[in-house]
Amino acid sequence: MPDKAQKTIKPLPLKPIYYFYGVEDLLVEEAVDDIKARALTGGMAALNFQVFSKGGLDAEAIISAALTMPAFSEWRVVLIKDAEALKITDARLLTDYIKAPSPSTCLIFASNSAKVDRKTELIKFLEKGGYLRAFGRLGDRELISRARKEAAREGKAITDGAAQKLAALSGGKLRDFKGELEKIILFAGDKAVIDVSDVEDAGLDCREETLFGLSDAIGSKDIKTALRIYGKVSNEPPLMVIGAIARQIRILLKIKALERGGVDRSGMAGQLGIFPGHFEGYYKRSGRFVEQELKAALMKLRKADVILKTGRMPERIAMSKLIIDLCGRGR
After folding, report:
1. d(CA 157, CA 234)
2. Is the pLDDT of residue 272 over 70?
3. What angle do CA 57, 60, 62 make, to 5 degrees?
4. Which residue in 128, 145, 149, 266 has its CB near the most CB atoms, within 10 A?
């Protein structure tokens, strides 16, 4: 039995292999930084750290780096960015390395792909060894907890309502959420507790309500209003707008699932992990869609996300087309 009186938790021992993946890139980045901080101690950190990224993912070079002994240190760290871009032949060579890895190297695979192909030999071995770790979007409860910790580091507290507004504004993406929170903390100055009024006074409330309005117009299938509202937020990063819409659609899908499961309406807000004051608006929006429409909308958002990231279409045209599609035209 563990000692209940023990108050400190020792960090888990380092592993020779890690594979971090998921759409929440900041969490992947933080996981990598944690391993580096624990492994690269002393004055030789730079000599014991090597990075390989897309365009230079050569398995033989990676394995050679991993087999190199650390300089005046217990550990060496080799980071493979964009791990999803590994070629099949390189993946096979790395699989052979994983079977007998160097005991003095942390080989870290990092990917921002939402999923991994569990049919491949590489992923099978990584999963079997307990080396896989996924980082998906955080729920509202987790974002609120994160906001508390970030604010506490600056000697402040933050109310759940203010954190909820920031979550809606950022579309649930942690990096955007953290950036907006940093702005609010600066805006709050010497104020000890950050509340909803600070979000409003910082000019973020208008942006949030506009994004809600855009989603609401899409939910009403009101193309004219949706395009007019988009004109007000067209200066915002398109991926933030997509994220805000996607976040709401995911919540609406969860409401549908809870309804199918027979969950009473009064208990839904708690299970969804959203601020109770915002629940009625979400519930009303959910009634305007059938479940299949919401699933189709998520697919359209993912497609638009790819188009924007690859620059295959001008931003305003891509976003206008997306809004028209989400409202039901062009099916």
Report:
1. 32
2. yes
3. 55
4. 145
Q: Which single residue is written with the structure tokens 């990917």?
A: 111
User: 13-22, 185-194, 246-255, 277-286: which has the minimum mean pLDDT?
Assistant: 277-286
Q: In what order do the strands lie in the sheet with 17-21?
A: 49-52, 76-80, 105-111, 17-21, 132-134
Backbone Cα Rg of the chain? 23
Cα separation of 39 and 9, whole Å? 18
Q: What is the DSSP secondary-structure string of 252-320?
A: HHHHHHHHHTT--GGGHHHHHT--HHHHHHHHHHHTTS-HHHHHHHHHHHHHHHHHHHHT-S-HHHHHH
What is the predicted pLDDT for the residue at 267? 82
Residue with tokens 């160097």, as numbered in its chain: 102
Cβ contacts of 38-42, under 8 Å, gap ≥ 24: 38/11, 38/14, 39/14, 39/74, 39/75, 39/76, 39/77, 39/106, 40/73, 40/75, 40/77, 41/73, 41/74, 41/75, 42/72, 42/73
Q: Which two tokens stand for residue 205?
A: 């409330």
Residues 307, 196 contacting (CB under 8 angstroms): no
* Residue 18: its H or E element: strand 17-21
pLDDT (0 to 100) of residue 330:
40
Coil, strand or helix at 96: helix
- Quote the pLDDT of residue 8: 44
Q: Once rounded to an integer, what is the mean pLDDT over residues 42-66?
A: 90
Tokens 């409401």 belong to which residue? 255
